[in-house]
Amino acid sequence: MSHAVHGPNWPARFGIALLAVIALAVAVALAVTIGEMAIPLDTALKALGNGLFDLDLPVSAIQQGVIFDYRLSRAVMAGLCGGSLALSGAILQALLRNPLAEPYILGISAGASTGAVAVMILGVGGTAMTVSAGAFIGSCAALAVVALLAAGAGGASDRVILAGVAASQLFNAATATIVTTLASAEQARGVMFWLLGNFGGVRWPDLWVATPVALLGFGICMLHAKALDAFAFGADAAASLGVAVMRVRIVLFATTAVLTAVMVSIVGTIGFVGLVIPHAARFLVGAGHARLLPACLVIGAIFMILADILSRVLVPQQILPIGVVTALFGAPAFAFILYRARTPA
């Protein structure tokens, strides 16, 4: 039987990968040229050459700063954030066998926000505690609360989602309490805008943290792609196929917690990306995680970059929080997925 029967051949895979890279490059090109200050593509390319390769091409200082220091760093961060959240959503949906699982709905993002705000406003941990570390502790605390609530309610998949909603409300309340009672007026304004998702404050040093975390997280997930396929039949079936169920769960839950925590600590809480993108990716490439995980990474990155562009152009002379834009797309998609999940497939 030919190899083509079993799956895509290598030329086809190379072609798909090339198309993905081109689509990602087009999204970044749009991100650096579209905005209140319209910039021609050739000027943007010159600015990128100056910034990346230390060339001396003729570009004004204002355009150089807008393109390289503001728009490009923002676009790269948006891509990393979208890909990481989509990847986390795919992992959680596979481990929990629930199409509605994602970091936002399960309360992981809310826990990360609480941890980050505790460090920023309360100074928890002093100089030894970074915002990312606080967000990670918060996300792990949220996971623990969800696990305890779900176990107490019987551990069924739908109970996990309900436990996530409860945990999300708990940590959102804790965050609101910290902000309203202990933050100054200036801190409160900044934190509340940050909590809705904001790429405006992203600069290149933030990417030195986000990039290795995203790439390492993706690598860990890909190493467990076959184990995730086995989870489609349940934990018992996965164990019978030789999967170390407990170890895989611990590693992958920790990976999603780290990915979510780092992204939340930099750009704030962004919902629905981890819910919608894995379903779109499954529709395009199927349920096999060796294909699904890279698709989630790329599609999530493109989606978030385009969403960031919309956040800058939808309202003239204003920038919408990115969480508002993703919710505009994610809420209807959530309703559709919920409708389809009424009955077993």
Automatic annotation (TrEMBL):
Location within or outside the cell: Cell membrane
Transmembrane segments: 75-96, 103-125, 131-153, 160-185, 205-223, 230-252, 258-280, 292-313, 319-339
Full protein name: Iron complex transport system permease protein
Location (main, coarse): membrane
InterPro entries: ABC_BtuC-like, ABC_transptr_permease_BtuC
GO molecular function terms noted in the UniProt entry: transmembrane transporter activity
Keywords, ordered alphabetically: Cell membrane, Membrane, Transmembrane, Transmembrane helix, Transport
Membrane topology: Multi-pass membrane protein
Domain of life (superkingdom): Bacteria
GO cellular component: plasma membrane
Family: Belongs to the binding-protein-dependent transport system permease family. FecCD subfamily.
